Amino acid sequence: MTKSLSTPGSAKVKSLTPMIAQYMSVKSAHPDSLLFYRMGDFYEMFFEDAEKGASVLGITLTKRGKSDGDDIPMCGVPVHSVDGYLARLIGAGHRVAICEQVEDPAEQKKRGGKGPLRREVIRILTPGTLTEDDLLVPRAYNYLAATGRSGDRMAVAWADISTGDFAVQEVDQDRFEGVLSMLNPAELVCPAGIDLPDAVAQLGICCTEQAPSLFDSTAGNRALCDYFGTSSLDGFGQFSRAMTSAAGALLAYMDLTQKGNLPRLRPLQPVVETGYMEIDPATRRSLEITRTLSGERKGSLLFAIDQTVTAAGARLLAKRIAAPLADSAAITRRLDLVSWFAAAGDLCDQLRVSMKAIPDIDRALSRLSLGHGGPRDLDALARGMLAGAELVTDAGKAQPGLAAPEDLPALYDAIKAAVPVADDLAPALGDDLPLLARDGGFIRQGYDSALDELRTLRDESRRLIAALQQDYCTSTGIASLKVKHNNVLGYHVDVRSTHADKLMQDDRFIHRQTTAQAVRFTTTALAELERDLSSAADRALAREIDIFDRLRDTALASAEKLGNAAAALARLDVATASAVIATSRAYCRPEVSDDVLFEIEGGRHAVVESMLAPGDSFIPNDCQLGDAGDLWLITGPNMAGKSTFLRQNAHIAILAQAGMFVPATAARIGVIDRLFSRVGAADDLARGRSTFMVEMVETAAILNQADDRALVILDEIGRGTATWDGLSIAWATLEHLHGVNKVRGLFATHYHEL
What we know:
Strand content: 15-25%
Structural class: alpha/beta
Number of strands: 25
Number of helices: 24
C-alpha cells in the first residue's frame, strides 16, 4: 500500500539545497520505503522517514537545513554497523531502500555535472528478500511467497533468496491456509485488492500488494524461461497457468527489489498435494511442531529432536518436520540412511566432527550471486568444500562392512564434484579476512606477483616516510617533530607551536596550517612520497578487487555443483543427527507401508521425554488402530495424560513420515495423507469467536476434509456448552468420523456415556 510522505510540495522544492533536492527526487520513486541515503560514512534519513526511523531505532532526531522555513528532521546510522539497525526496522514491518553513490568525482567532471554526485537505490530490503547473516535466523528458512490465479485455480510459489530454494504448488482455496502455515513465509506478495484468509494475519505474515499485471501467467512463463535459459518449462515438470502466475510474480518482485540483480535460484520445483502429509494451521498450533503456542522454538517437537550441527542441516530438518512425506518409498530411502549411520556409530561420529567445520555454503553463494558477497563468503565456500572432502575421505576409510543405502553414493559424489572449487579459492585467500572486498588485504602474500610488487612499493613508501621523519628530527634538532596523516592535509610535518619559527625559516618546509597547539608543514619530498604511496595503495587495492572478481566468477561458474554439494551435506547432517538420537534415546525404525495400520508399541512423547530430569523416565503406552474407521475412545481424570497420549501419537506419525526413527519400541504406520488435531482450548476474540466457537469451526473443517487415509486426534469435543448439548455434539462427531469419514482416530472425552 502506498503511503503519503509529509514533505514540501513541488513548488517549494526550489528552496531546498541540491543534496536535499536529490534526496527528494530519489524518495519520490520509493514512497513506501524508508530511504537510507548514503552520505560519507553514514546512511541518513530525512523528513517523515527520519521521524519514523528515530522512533523505531531509539536514536537522536536532529535537523539539517530548512524547507519552507521549517527545520528538516534528520537522523543517521553508521555504515559499518548498519545491519543491526536494518534488522530492527524490518522487524518493525518497514521496507528499506538503500541509496548509494553510483559515480565518482572524475565521472561527474567528465559529464560536466555540478552539485552532489549521482545516487541511486541499488536494493530494497523487505522481510522476504534478506541475505545478510546478521538479518537472518541461521537455522531457519526465510521464505518469500507469492499467490497466483488463473480462472478458479490458485497457486502459491515460494523461494528463499538466501539459499536458492524455489518451488510452486497449485492449491484449493480451502488448503491455501495449510500451505502458508507449512511455509510460514516472512513475506507474501499478492495482487492489490485480493481478499486474503484470516490465517495470514494470525501467522504474522507481512503482506505486500503489487499491481495485478505482475501476476500475468503468460508474462510469468516467459520470464521464468528467460531466467533459466530454456524455451519451455516442460523439463522441470508440469505447470498450470496459476502456477506460472505465482512463480512469475515472485521472480518479478525479486527483480524489483534487487534492482535487476536476480539471485541464484535452483530449478523451479512443482510440488503436488499428494507428495506430503497435509497439516492445517490449527493442527500445527495445537501440536507445537516447530514452535510452541507462545511462539518459542524451545518446547516444540523440532527443538526436541534437532541434533544437527550445520545451519543448512537444521533448515532441512525443519522443512521435513513441517512437511512429512506421504510416499512410502521415499520415506523408506530416508530411513535406510538413518539405519546405516546408526549401525556405523564410529563413522557417524567422525562425519559429524567434519560437518561442524562446514559454514553456510548456500547463503554465501547467494550473497556472491547478488553482488553483496565479500572475501569471507569465498572463504566459506573454500572451507566448506575442504571439510566436505575430509568427510568423504573419512567415509572411504571407515566403511562399516554394511551394504550402502541407495542414496549414499550419490551424496558422496555430489560433494566430491564441488571440491575442485576449493582448490581454486583456498590458495588465494589470507587468514584475517575483511567483510568487504573494498577494504583490501585479503589476498595471500605470494599468490599474485603483481600484487606483491605493488604492496612492496606501498610498504616501502611507508618506510621512507618514517625515515624522512627521523631525518627531519636530526637536521632540525626538534626531537618531538612527527610526520602525521589526516584526511584534510594528508601526510604532513607536525610540530609544537614553540618550534614553528625554526621551520618557518627553513626553505624545505612549506607552511600549511596553524592551530592553538601545533603548526603543520609539508615538504616537496614528503609530497612525492605521499603520491607514490597513494598510487601504490590504490593500484594494490584495484588489483585485489580484480582478483576477487575473478575468484567470484570461478565460484559462480560452479554454483550448481556447490549447491548440490551443500544439499548433500545437509542431508548427511540430518541423517547422522537422526542416527544419534535413535541410538542415544532408544528410538526405533518405523515400518511405513501403504495400508491403514497405526500400531505403536511402547510409544513415548518426544518433547516431554527430552525435558525430564535425569533419572526420571517416561511411562510408555501402546496404540493400535487397525481397520479403516478404527477409533479409540480415551477417558480418565484431568492431569491423567490424555492430551499427552494424543500428541505423542501425532508426533510419532510426523517423525516417521519425515524419515526419522520414533520414540517407541516398535511402530507400524500406514501412510497418513492428512493429520488433524483439536487439542487444547483457545479463543479468537479479535474475530468475535469464543473458545467454543473456535472449536466448532475447527471440528467442522475436520469433518468436511478428513478421509480414510487421515489421522484425527480430538480432545474433549463439546466442552464449553451445556452438558447434554456437548454430549450430543461429541456423539454426532464421533459417529460421523467412524461411519462417514472412516478415519483412524483418537478421541479423548469426559462424557462416560460415549
